[in-house]
Structure formats: structure tokens, C-alpha cells
Amino acid sequence: MAFDGVLITEIFHSLQGETSLAGVPFAFIRLTGCNLRCTYCDSAYAFKGGTRMSIPEVLATIRPYGVKHVLLTGGEPLLQRGTPELARTLFEAGYLVSVETHGEVAITPVRPWTRIVMDIKTPGSGMNRGGFTQNLPVLRTGDEIKFVITSPSDYEWACELVHSQDLPKVCDILFSPAVAAVGSPGEGRYPGVELKWLAERILEDRLPVRMQIQLHKLIWGAQTKGV
């Protein structure tokens, strides 16, 4: 079957709002489609639609941004069969490529060319399926694991994983307070997961993680696009 490019929801230039690279200028490439429906999803507009683009067209779009970092996000970018070729081409063009994935799809097809940010779904996401375990052995130094915390019980669940021997020791671990999507019932921060509460719990528990918030939304507002 002939390669027919990738289905793109949007491409834009902004500061990375999360991970250890927060604040760094990035080209964001949001691919269309996702097989999960998380309770706090803020990119549901990427579930369907999109524009079919060739890989040269994608590179031509991001070139004027003048950045060295690119993020492939979604949706779930690893659902598209063209994503590995896109990642390889970006890497060979000199970009530092990150992929944000929910970990329920194999990361091995993009492994040689990318830094992985794996968003392990907590029970409060409604999508805690456990498929991420297949990818844990493939993670390496420089990759990051992210937990979006919706409740105190989510926090305890994530803590158990952090303290277990299951997570790779080479990865940075990120804890994010969940934010309900704009326009959804209960828009805003989830009850019981205020910023101060999460920060104090991490300190009290001597947890070896990085707390993060969505920098881009603090700067430009709750409806700002990001990872």
C-alpha cells in the first residue's frame, strides 16, 4: 500500500507548557485520532477530522518557526502508521523530536528517533487499562513518565507505582494536577487536587518526582492549545 502521509489536526508554534522542557520554544504537530476518552481531555477536537499532509508539507510548515524541538502529540500520535516515518524524517532533518503518548500503543516503531513522554492513565482518567506496562522496558534515559492526578486516590495509586520497582529508574517522573476541560461540567481544577495540596503532599512524602502545571495556560489562558 502506498504511503499517504499523516492526518494532521493542527501545527503551531508555542512554548512547551509541560515536561522538563517547559518554557522551550517548540513546533507542535497534533495528529488526528485517539482510542481513549479521558475525563479531563482538553483536545477532543483532535478525535476526528484533520487534513492529510505529506511529510515534506509538514516540514515546510514548521521550518519558518526556527526551532530545534518538535512535539508529536494528539490525540494519540502512535495510532497513525505514518508517524514513524514522520519521526525519522524530522530526526534526520536535525530536529529533537518528542512524542507524547498514552502508552497503550507500542512505542518501539518511533524509539530510534524520539524522546518519549508517556502519560500513564490514572484510575480517575476513566481509561486506566494497564497497557502502558508493555512499554516500560523500552523507556530510556531522557524519557519522561507523566501522571495526571484527579483525586487523592489517584495520587496514592501513582505513589505506589513510583515506589515500586516497575518504573524505569532512568526516567523523570511528572505529577500534574488535573484540570477539567473548558466548557465541561466542573470546568477548572478537580476538587481536592489544588496546587498547594499536591505540592505539599509531594514534599511531605519525599516523592522523587517533578510537579508541573500547564505553563502555556497560565500565560495565555485556559483555552490555549498545548500538549
Task: Describe what you observe in this structure.
The chain has 227 residues and is an alpha/beta fold. The protein is built from 5 helices and 11 strands, in the order βββαβαβββαβββαβα. It has helices at 55-62, 83-92, 152-163, 195-204, 215-220, and strands at residues 6-15, 25-31, 51-53, 69-73, 96-101, 114-120, 144-149, 172-177, 179-180, 188-189, 210-211. The radius of gyration is 17 Å and the shape is globular.
SSE inventory with pairings:
Elements (H helix, E strand, L loop, with lengths): L5 E10 L9 E7 L19 E3 L1 H8 L6 E5 L9 H10 L3 E6 L12 E7 L23 E6 L2 H12 L8 E6 L1 E2 L7 E2 L5 H10 L5 E2 L3 H6 L7
Parallel strand pairs: 2-4, 4-5, 5-6, 6-7, 7-8, 8-11
Antiparallel strand pairs: 1-2, 1-3, 9-10
Fold-level CATH name: TIM Barrel
In CATH, what is the class? Answer: Alpha Beta
Largest sheet report: 9 strands, mixed
Strand order of the largest sheet: 3-1-2-4-5-6-7-8-11
> What are the secondary-structure elements, in order, as H or E?
EEEHEHEEEHEEEHEH
| Domain tally | 1
CATH homologous superfamily label: Aldolase class I
Please give the count of helices.
Answer: 5
Shape, per Cα inertia axes = globular
- How much of the residues is beta strand, in percent? 15-25%
**Tally of DSSP β-strands:** 11
Helix fraction bin? 10-25%
The residue ranges in which pLDDT falls below 50 over 5 or more consecutive positions are none
What key attributes describe this structure?
227 residues, alpha/beta, two-stranded antiparallel ribbon, 11 strands, TIM Barrel, single chain, nine-stranded mixed β-sheet, 5 helices, globular, 25% strand
